[in-house]
Amino acid sequence: MPKVFYTQPDGSERVVEAAAGDSVMQTAVRNGVAGIVGQCGGVLSCATCHVFLAEENAGDFPPVGEDEDEMLDCAATEREDNSRLSCQLVLDDGREVHVTVPEAQL
Q: What is the dihedral of CA 43, 47, 49, 53, to 10 degrees?
């Protein structure tokens, strides 16, 4: 079972067990993780699930695609090199993923 470690801007951390095949965004929304909205439901038409992916997980997911790259430019918090839309981070069984939630999403 995958696990997602969500770190909030204040440094607090919440660990959520996920279902394989779900995204980091879906896992957050289902479990009421603060700061991840997922307004579009994961179809790359908003940037309300912006997260900063831990360096240790950078190679665990496909690189940022063109559509994701464009949407990240619309994020409420300035993007960084490790910015991702959490709807594009699909979890494999047994994976542990660490993300930091930005200060703002809208």
A: 110
Distance in angstroms (rounded) separating the CA atoms of residues 75 and 5: 21
Tens of pLDDT, residue by residue over 50-99, are 999 999 999 999 999 999 999 999 999 999 999 999 999 999 999 999 99
How far is it, in rounded angstroms, from Cα 102 to Cα 38?
13
Q: Taking the complete model, does pTM exceed 0.70, yes or no?
A: yes
**99 phi, psi to nearest 5 deg:** -130, 155
Q: What is the DSSP string of 60-90?
A: GSPPPPHHHHHHHTT-SSPP-TTEEEGGG-B
The pLDDT-based confidence of 106 (bands split at 50, 70, 90) is confident
